[in-house]
Amino acid sequence: MTVLDGNKIAGEIQEKIKKEIDSLKRTSNQIPGLTVIIVGDNPASQAYVRKKHKIAQKLGINSRVIELDKRISTVRLIKQIKNLNQDQNVHAVLIQLPLPDTFKTWEILDHLDPGKDVDRFLPINLGKILLNRTEIYPCTPAGVLVILDEYQIDLTGLNVVMVGRSFIVGKPLASMLTNRNATVTICHSKTKHLAGLLRKADLVVAAIGKAGFITPDMVKKNVILIDVGQNFLYQRKDVIKLCTQSQQNKFEKKGYAITGDIHIDAFKKSSYYTPVPGGIGPMTVAMLMQNTLLLFKQKLKLE
Ligand code: NDP
Fold first, then answer.
1. Is 285 touching ligand 1 by the criterion CB < 6 Å?
2. pLDDT tens, residue by residue, 140-190
3. What's phi and psi for 6, nearest 5 deg?
C-alpha cells in the first residue's frame, strides 16, 4: 500500500505557484488578491481560514480575511460581497462554509461574481464542469484529481464509488471523474446496499463527515481509497478506536484528533490511500492558491 502524500505534493505545487507569482509581479507589477469572508465563530472554520491566510501570504498573494459577527444581517453580508465584486485588487473571493444556520446559503452565494468564485460553487461554474468546459475546478475535487495524477493512477474504466453528493465535493468530483472516463456511482444516506456497491469498487472516495464509517469489510483488496472526511474527535475512547498512533499522541497534547471517513484498518487492504490528516486537506489548500492564481491570470489576459 502506497500513501498518497498530500503534504508533499501540496508543498511542491505551492513552490511552483510562488515562483509564478514572483515572476508575474515583476512583469505586470500586480499580485493576485484573495479575500475570505468568515461569518460567526465556528472553531474548525476559523482554523481553516487561518491556515489559508497564512499560506496565501507565504506565496505572495494579497490575502485578506473579513471576519463578521454571526448576527450580521443578510443585507449587510450581501453588501460586503458586492463591494468585493467591484474591488479591482480582489481576484478571488471565498465565502467560508458552512454559514451560520440563520443564513440561506444560496441567498448569499448567488451574489458573488462568478468570475471571482474561487471555490467554483456557483451554478455557471458547476455547469461548466458538467460540460467539461473549464480549466478551473472546485478546490477539494481538484485536489483529488491532481494527487491521483501525480501518482500516475489511470482512471480510465475504473469502477468508482463516490460516497457523498454535496455540491462542494461529491457532485463536482463525480462529474470530473466521469469526464476522465471512470464509471462513477454516487452514493448518499438513502443508498441501499452501500457495502455491496463499495466492495465492487476499484476506487472509493469518501466525503461523508462520519469518522471511520467505511470499514475494512466494505472494500476489496487493492482498492484505491481517497478519504476527504475531516472529523474532529474529542473523546479518548473514539480516538483510540479510530486514529493512528501519531494522532493519538497529538490528542494527548491538543485535546482533539482529526480522522477521516475511512477506518484506518481499511487502508491496510488498499493499493493506494490518502491519510487524514496529510492527504486531501493540504491538497485543497494548494488548489485554492492555484485557483486564485488562475483567476488573476484570467484577469491579466483581459487587460
Ligand atoms: P455534507 O454534509 O454536505 O455531505 C455529506 C454527504 O454524505 C451527503 O451527501 C450525505 O447524504 C452523505 N451521507 C451521510 N451519511 C451517510 C451514510 N450513512 N451513508 C452514505 N452517505 C451518507 O458534507 P461535505 O461534502 O461538505 O463534506 C464531507 C466531509 O468532507 C466532511 O467531513 C468535511 O469536513 C470534509 N471536507 C474536507 C475537505 C478537505 O479539504 N479535506 C473539504 C470539504 C469537506 P445525503 O445527501 O443523503 O444527506
1. no
2. 999 999 999 999 999 999 999 999 999 999 999 999 999 999 999 999 999
3. -65, -35
Is residue 270's pLDDT more than 80? yes
| 52 in catalytic set | yes
Shared domain for 195 and 93, answered yes or no, is no
Distance CA(93)–CA(35), nearest Å, equals 5
Left, alpha or beta for 164 (phi > 0: left; psi -120 to 50: alpha)? left
Q: Is residue 126 part of a domain?
A: no
pLDDT of amino acid 302 = 72
> With a 6 A CB cut-off, is 186 part of the ligand 1 pocket?
no
Q: Point out which residues pair with 272 in neighbouring strands.
A: 2, 224
Question: Known catalytic residue: 87?
Answer: no
How many distinct structural domains can be found in the chain? 2
pLDDT tens digits, one per residue of 105-138: 999 999 999 999 999 999 999 999 999 999 999 9
> Is 80 considered catalytic here?
no
**276 C-alpha to ligand 1 centroid (Å):** 15
The response to whether residue 219 sits with its C-beta less than 6 Å from ligand 1 reads: no
**Domain range spanning residue 214?**
139-281
Give the pLDDT of residue 100. Answer: 97
pTM of the model: 0.97
Among 5, 80, 117, 119, the active-site one is 119
* Residue 278 near residue 10 (C-beta atoms within 8 A): no
**CB of 45 shorter than 6 A to ligand 1:** no
